[in-house]
């Protein structure tokens, strides 16, 4: 006589694994939708970082080559600012995080997100999507970006050889 409980338990375990895998797959964030573009923004000294970077929690700066850099940061021929520009923020713990400014829904270099200082969220004026940039690392909170599973493209922020910061593409 065959033990139906054991085979039923195995089938149930298999169904639970498939269900868990399908639920996890639904929460994938597409943060690579923005076309790849080089990023190179060096802060050569710690005072440069303090003046032009994001030294404190909830600070932010935008960098768009040829258009916008924070007050007086020199733009060099080597500076690159991604597809739509770079949004540099200090998250709620003060750690620097960088994103491409291009809205992933519109996917155009001149349709950029901005910061809503009242809610501390980024938003796209054209499509209405809102993003968490100071927490949750660029995930969409609402709008078409959330509906489609799009997140902001992230860039690497790390120390340079002399203790300064650099924002670069990976």
Question: Descriptors for this entry?
Answer:
alpha+beta; 170 residues; disordered N terminus; 26% strand; four-stranded antiparallel beta sheet; Rieske Iron-sulfur Protein
Word description of this protein:
This protein is an alpha+beta fold. The chain has one domain: Rieske [2Fe-2S] iron-sulphur domain (Rieske Iron-sulfur Protein). Helix content is 21%, strand content 26%. It is built from 3 helices and 11 strands; from the N terminus they run H-E-H-E-E-E-E-E-E-E-E-H-E-E. It has helices at residues 4-26, 46-52, 144-148; strands spanning 39-42, 60-63, 80-81, 86-90, 96-100, 113-116, 121-124, 130-132, 139-142, 154-159, 165-168. The chain starts with a helix and ends with a strand. Residues 1-7 and 12-25 have low confidence and may be disordered.
CATH superfamily: Rieske [2Fe-2S] iron-sulphur domain
> What does the overall shape look like?
globular
Strands of the largest sheet, in order across it?
2-4-5-10-11-1-3
Beta strands, count: 11
Main beta sheet strand tally, sense and closure = 7 strands, antiparallel
Structural class computed from helices and strand pairing: alpha+beta
Query: Percent of residues in helical segments?
Result: 10-25%
Number of helices: 3
Mean residue pLDDT: 85
**N-to-C span:** 60 Å
Number of domain units:
1
- List the uncertain runs: 1-7, 12-25
User: What order do the SSEs take from the amino end to the carboxyl end, as H and E?
Assistant: HEHEEEEEEEEHEE
Radius of gyration, in angstroms, nearest whole number = 21 Å
Q: What proportion strand? A: 25-35%
CATH architecture designation = 3-layer Sandwich
- CATH topology type: Rieske Iron-sulfur Protein
Question: Mind telling me the CATH class?
Answer: Mainly Beta
